Amino acid sequence: MSYKNDFPMFARFKKEKKPLVYLDSASTAQMPQCVIDAVREFEETTRANVHRGIYELSERATECYEGARERVRKFVNARRAREIVFTRNTTESINLVAYSLTKTFFKKGDHILISRGEHHSNFLPWQMIAKEKGIILDILELNKEGEIAIEAVKKALHPKTRLAAFSHISHVLGTINPIEKIRKTLRKRNILFLVDAAQSAGHIPIDVQKIGCDFLAFSGHKMGAPMGIGVLYGREEIVHTMEPFLRGGGMIRKVDITNTEWDELPYKFEAGTPNVSGAIGLEAAINYITSIGFKEIRAIDEKLTKRAFAQLKKIPGIHIFGPEDPRTRGGVISFTIEGIHPVRSSIHFQQDSSHRGRLRRITSNWVHPHDLATILDREGIAIRAGHHCAMPLMKYLGVPAVSRISFWVYNSVSDIEVLGRGIEKALRILA
Amino acid sequence: MDLLYTDIFLLHYHAPKNYGLHVPFDIEAKGENTLCGDSLTLRLTFARDCVQAISFESEGCVISRAASSLLFEYIKGKNRKEIKEFSPYALFELLGITLTAARIKCVLLPLETIQKGV
Ligand SMILES: Cc1ncc(COP(=O)(O)O)c(C=O)c1O
């Protein structure tokens, strides 16, 4: 079954009459019609501020907003709706946790553990508080497959490690990290665990109780919801002790000139008027996802990954990062291509594990990912090229940039075939 | 007309003019675009105030290298003031290409590097 027709973008956008081949869902997924309709319905019939008005419309808007929260709770299997905080995106969710924990939880000399593969969103907030508070940020190196290995986690832990933050699925390498096993190791030592689920939400089921994490963050726009709505799950036992991140309206119980009592969870973390229509859209996106089912979504990701590997491997000089087995990875594939005719002979780029973490010289005859992306764009093919907000990982891979393709439910085998022909054309031009 | 990735443009990528650093030289300038990993080294020789010889080596994308080749060939014989005053718009015209916003920095690298140098 094809889901492409559920997404109006594919009927509306044409690149010089060529159909859109959208292979950048890991950045932002397209939005199905049902989500667009739900948002529009809310704006046309129910729009009002929440938790404030005494009038009916405001009450209805509040009910919709809280209904969306309940839907998210069920989606990630949290115990209580008050463990679900609406934010703008993954980035804000992680910043909230980092900022708030520095106020009361972290002490000078504490350690935080993250991996080399993290997105800057799960890197810079920790780097910031490490600098400000005298915390030590430990970086776990990935194994050959680009995975976070359990043994490496055990080794990297310090007696003073108080929090670990890892991505569920790598947005560059596609690896699915063994977060449940990691959790077991961390729990023995009472270490808080944050999971960056930006790439997994909408692709594989998320069960925060089964994972056993303390925090989990994701973005609506990567799973068919509007931009500007995101989620932070926070285990109640932890978040109820935390200080608010932003301060303002809608988050207090009582304010006088010198003192304020914060509202209960989750409202103390939702200062100001929230993105209500975004939350409604997220609810609709979750409904859309569950109507397809994770089994089917996962089957699509696996089929396309397998197909893409077969197609890409035919290209001379290609280097694909991450594991090949589609069962152990998400639908995100990054690669580089060496050029065929060098301008001059120079050192060749090779993935060489003996030089981990050191920037190797790049061959001057590689196909620059930006050139590839520009040429593919002219064929109506959207891929991502660049450092992917993961400069420490790029350094480890020994390249300044990679090309990345990623899938969601609307992609098909024919998209991969068009991509294959597009790359061949690009190589004819560039070689 | 857009010349991006056309034969003339690609020729300047595959067989760039003035490629390979010369000695002796009067001035050396280096530029870098850390976001995409492009880097450029250029050397200039002056006769009075005018560029007499220019040579460069670079790593990076097609656009940045072809732009370097085309720009530096054009710049030969020009004086410091003319180089300093050469605008990005004049460069786009010289190259005959249109670029998306994300890639403008690729062609600005050679221009900014030479302007820094003179
Ligand atoms: C793994 C990962 N973490 C965090 C983010 C940041 O997401 P957002 O820009 O929605 O905050 C992304 C998005 O690219 C991601 O892939």
Question: What is the topological layout?
Answer:
The complex is a heterodimer of chains A (431) and B (118).
Chain A: H1 9-12, E1 14-15, E2 18-19, E3 21-22, H2 33-45, H3 56-76, E4 84-87, H4 90-104, E5 111-115, H5 124-133, E6 136-140, H6 150-156, E7 161-167, H7 179-188, E8 192-196, H8 208-211, E9 215-219, E10 230-234, H9 236-239, E11 252-255, E12 260-262, H10 276-292, H11 294-313, E13 318-320, E14 332-338, E15 366-367, H12 369-377, E16 381-382, E17 384-386, H13 391-397, E18 402-406, H14 413-430
Parallel strand pairs in A: 3-16, 5-6, 5-7, 7-8, 8-9
Antiparallel strand pairs in A: 1-2, 4-10, 9-10, 11-12, 13-14, 14-15, 14-18, 17-18
Chain B: H1 7-14, E1 27-33, E2 38-47, E3 50-59, H2 62-75, H3 80-85, H4 88-95, H5 104-117
Helix pairs in contact in B: 1-2, 2-5
Bound molecules: pyridoxal-5'-phosphate (PLP).
Notes on the protein architecture:
The complex is a heterodimer of chains A (431) and B (118). Chain A is of the alpha/beta class and 431 residues long. Chain A has 2 domains: 4-30 and 293-430, Aspartate Aminotransferase, domain 1 (Alpha-Beta Complex), CATH 3.90.1150; 35-290, Type I PLP-dependent aspartate aminotransferase-like (Major domain) (Aspartate Aminotransferase, domain 2, 3-Layer(aba) Sandwich), CATH 3.40.640. Chain A is built from 14 helices and 18 strands. In chain A, strands 4-10-9-8-7-5-6 form a 7-stranded mixed sheet, with helices on both faces. In chain A, helix 4 runs parallel beside helix 5 and helix 11 (294-313) packs parallel to helix 14. The radius of gyration of chain A is 23 Å and the shape is globular. In chain A, 49% of the residues are buried. Residues 341-363 of chain A have low confidence and may be disordered. With 118 residues, chain B is an alpha+beta fold. Chain B has one domain: Sufe protein. Chain: A (Alpha-Beta Complex), CATH 3.90.1010. A 3-stranded antiparallel sheet of chain B has the order 1-2-3, covered by helices on one side. In chain B, strand 2 (38-47) and strand 3 (50-59) form a beta hairpin. The N and C termini of chain B lie far apart (32 Å). Bound molecules: pyridoxal-5'-phosphate. Pyridoxal-5'-phosphate is lined by residues 27, 89-91, 119, 121-122, 167, 171, 196, 198-199, 219 of chain A.
